[in-house]
Write a structure and sequence with these properties.
Blueprint (H helix, E strand, L loop, with lengths): L2 E4 L5 E5 L10 E6 L5 E5 L4 E5 L5 E5 L9 E7 L4 E6 L5 E5 L3 H6 L14 E3 L3
């Protein structure tokens, strides 16, 4: 499977098939953030993958608690710049903060290397 991105008129821009390219993807939840990153829950790797607006892989987002949390749904809160990640298996959610208000205003945020894109998290109640 793939995430297919089109222009406003419906013309194909790119298809994202996982990281590394072509490795496969089982996408479920998807959203964009304030910096036009595309965030995708991948059921194959049990991760959230961040790609840029042109389809280039940027990072796997660190999901905790690893092994007992299966990312399934995403929602980005533009007011607080927090990413809400819902789990498929245990009816829980995790809230991440990885973009500062300054980043959103200046469009200067650069994700950290693979596996270290999130710098804080708070578990949501069941």
């Amino acid at each position: 499977m793939a995430v297919v991105v089109t222009e406003c008129g419906g013309r194909h821009r790119f298809s994202y098939t996982g990281h590394p390219s072509g490795s496969g993807l089982d996408p479920c939840g998807i959203c964009t953030d304030a910096l036009s990153h595309i965030l995708v829950c991948d059921d194959k790797t049990k991760t959230v993958q961040m790609i840029d607006k042109d389809g280039q892989f940027l990072s796997h987002l660190l999901i905790r608690p690893s092994g007992i949390f299966r990312p399934w749904s995403l929602s980005y809160d533009i007011n607080t710049h927090r990413l809400w990640v819902g789990s498929r298996d245990n009816n829980t959610g995790v809230i991440y903060s990885y973009i500062t208000r300054h980043d959103a205003l200046t469009d200067e945020h650069t994700p950290r290397p693979d596996g270290d894109a999130m710098f804080s998290s708070t578990s949501a109640v069941k």
